[in-house]
User: Which sequence fits this backbone?
């Protein structure tokens, strides 16, 4: 799915946008205040969030392959937040970036299909069709099994997009369930999830050798990468956890076994908050940090 | 959490609202058309959805303990859908109903906290606080482990609300992951999830003997009920899957072991679509079906 843009930009870096209205870039706050006529705090905050995301996208688009939007951060702003999610998606797509909605959704049959409409498609109504967010991909939770993912795979595929299935997350508690050993195989729950990814992704393997069903594999568990790559030879790995959470780009080589687009490195605070560590203008610091990460990843994947 | 309203209404029935704009009650469509000045299809559809949910709530509130709102169905209507989710929550709470946001969210640390703000709390911004949906409870996905649920437990607890953790879902594919046998215990993944529910719910067990951390246990797998109740003695079971999905109220007795509020029976299409089977007015058919389910469940639980 994202192979084209990875090649065009020579980059595997995905800018993570988890906007906190209390920690936006100062210029975004100033832009949002200028000419704002809304009295509703949610509308104002959503404006500021869009301004912040736009600045961050403009600063880094040339060295990034895509953006990952943390949906929770938009939902907490209410209806204007949902509109902002759509606006930011459009801004990123206009810049040629691949847009991943980090929604971690998962539900059964018609509810899964409804999430597919919300993120990838549209909803027919007696009043006319309602367009969804228009994302290229979304993160999904596989706890409900393969049949719960099928409507989302279909919705993504119709659009030429894809999914990233949670296989091994970055948090310490990931071990509670994902690392449990199974009686039948002595492998872990994560290993079984990886097999499901391969199964549902098989019809979506393209000429690049990569499937439209990828996997979220935390950069905080590099010791698991080889085994997971073996079980998912065609999946694009979305790799969060570099930087603040302790992961390191140089430990991620196994992700790139199928080629340069085999791994996408998602970094949020490391890029957006770079100016807090280095000083200077937020946009410039973000561009420099994204460029540095791109160089490291591109070299590693070569 | 819901013990009070179960006692007051003598009901364990939860009205499931999964509104599809193409299948609303005819009167809701008529109400939405009257005086509608919006030209935006999403705004019109959201108006119709709110009208539909209001009619369904008014028809059944006296015989129900709560409502379960399928968040996917609101999200697909865009920003007006998100506003509708909040409106319907308020309508249901005004009628004394317990509101469960069926969101199946699950994410790590600050993202989980952001979902807590969106559904239970509010979000501080430089422009003032933004209120969330105001739900009493939400469904959550435990694949990311206990630490991912902690911020949501805290957010719910601050509000006197609670969570329903997915333990055994209703769909056939539930077996793919939830019924895998574990090497250490020979129990299943669901059994382990049940233990996590009991662990994180322990500090929230109230004088009723019920915890503020409940579990989603599908009525389609009654053979699992006894074992799951044993592992979760204090959890309220949210039981979807009665009716269209094949579950039967009379198989659910084990859910009520801790008392009448030990189980909540969530029925969507069975109540909302009752008129399609019996003929007659949708509101009256819904009230009759909800009343019938209430009688069955109340007798079973006694």
Assistant:
């Amino acid at each position: 799915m994202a192979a084209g843009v990875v090649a065009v930009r020579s980059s595997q870096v995905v800018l993570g946008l988890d906007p906190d209205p209390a920690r936006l870039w100062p210029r975004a706050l100033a832009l949002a205040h200028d000419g704002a006529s809304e009295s509703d705090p949610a509308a104002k905050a959503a404006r500021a969030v869009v301004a912040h995301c736009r600045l961050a996208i403009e600063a880094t688009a040339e060295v990034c392959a895509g953006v990952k939007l943390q949906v929770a951060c938009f939902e907490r702003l209410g209806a204007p937040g949902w509109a902002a999610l759509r606006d930011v998606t459009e801004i990123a797509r206009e810049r040629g970036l691949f847009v991943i909605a980090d929604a971690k959704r998962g539900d059964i049959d018609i509810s899964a299909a409804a999430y597919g409409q919300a993120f990838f498609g549209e909803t027919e109504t007696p009043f006319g069709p309602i367009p969804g967010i228009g994302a290229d991909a979304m993160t999904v939770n596989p706890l409900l099994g393969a049949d719960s993912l099928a409507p989302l795979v279909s919705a993504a595929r119709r659009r030429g997009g894809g999914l990233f299935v949670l296989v091994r997350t970055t948090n310490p508690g990931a071990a509670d369930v994902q690392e449990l050993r199974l009686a039948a195989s002595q492998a872990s729950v994560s290993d079984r999830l990886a097999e499901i990814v391969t199964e549902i992704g098989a019809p979506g393997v393209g000429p690049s050798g990569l499937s439209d069903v990828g996997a979220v594999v935390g950069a905080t568990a590099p010791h698991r990468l080889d085994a997971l790559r073996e079980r998912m030879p065609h999946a694009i790995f979305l790799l969060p956890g570099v930087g603040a959470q302790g992961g390191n780009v140089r430990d991620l080589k196994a992700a790139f076994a199928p080629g340069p687009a085999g791994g996408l490195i998602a970094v949020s605070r490391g890029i957006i908050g770079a100016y807090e560590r280095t000083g200077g203008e937020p946009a410039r610091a973000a561009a420099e940090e994204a460029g540095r990460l791109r160089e490291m990843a591109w070299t590693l994947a070569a």
User: Anything to note?
Assistant: Chain B has one domain: 3-301. The first helix of chain B runs from residue 3 to 9.
